[in-house]
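Minutes, methods subgroup
Present: GH (chair), OT, SY

1. OT presented the first of two proteins processed in the latest run. Sequence and structure tokens recorded below as shown on screen.
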Amino acid sequence: SAVARQGDGPTSGPRFGSQAASAINDPRNSTRSVYLPVVRDNLPEAMSLFDAADPSLVVAERPITTVPAQGLYLLNNAFMLRAADSAADRLLKETTTETERIRAAYLLFFGRSPVEKELKAAGEFLEAYKAAARKDGEPRRFLEKEAWAAFAQAMLASAEFQYRK
């Protein structure tokens, strides 16, 4: 990790602050937070938004919050957009029909198959998204990928994805 590469010594100052702290908050960083060392005064944005414990305190229980900033993060953060694009690429590569893709998306994100109502709603979403993109003059070759990335992003931002049973 960026923190481990710094070695022993002070955890502040220009050497530490410029390299390790920026690497921890870099949206291109794909290190899982389970394995991410935490710098007390530089908690990554995602961890601070989603109820991470204060690293400078001993905490037995964390408060659980639901705030608008969490939804905005899920819809606008560069990491989340990349994750949705990657999921769209995978769905387009591994399946051939729209129904197969919707079923694969539900298995991938929720660990279950969609019910008939969800299949229909997903199909309607994809068609409406493509129609709106065509109306905005989006080149035809990008429509399919863009629609699936938007669908994947919606699934990533859903309560069912965040709070798996």
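2. SY then presented the second protein from the same run.
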Amino acid sequence: ALYEQWREAYRLVMTFAAVLAEDPEEGAPASEEQWTKRLIHENAMIVAPKIVSASHCNLYVLQMENAAVIRFNCRQLMEQVSYAVLSGQAEPAYKEVVKEAMEQFRVLFCHWVGTFRRDDYEDEWGLFL
């Protein structure tokens, strides 16, 4: 369910990004709008592989590491979406559609993370104890 909700959110995020500026021509510097679009794409592209990675791993530390990366990228993505609207690059209504899909994803994500079970593996970095 989490992966399917991400696919829906991803589709809406990509539709949102499509209304932003076109990619710069070869050799031309990127505009602010193009950077915003690029950052949205980068953040969105990371989530699905991290869901798959965490789902196919039984080590709590690695599951939590992937979950933290997912959360970070989703937050960054929404900050970029909000910035696009604030700076006049996109319409507020588009942001609301993306925000609703991301909220549905967040609810499923919280439930999914709750299924992770601690194990005896020691986190050498001391983050997920």
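Chair's summary of item 2: The longest helix spans residues 60-86.
Next meeting: continue with the remaining queue.
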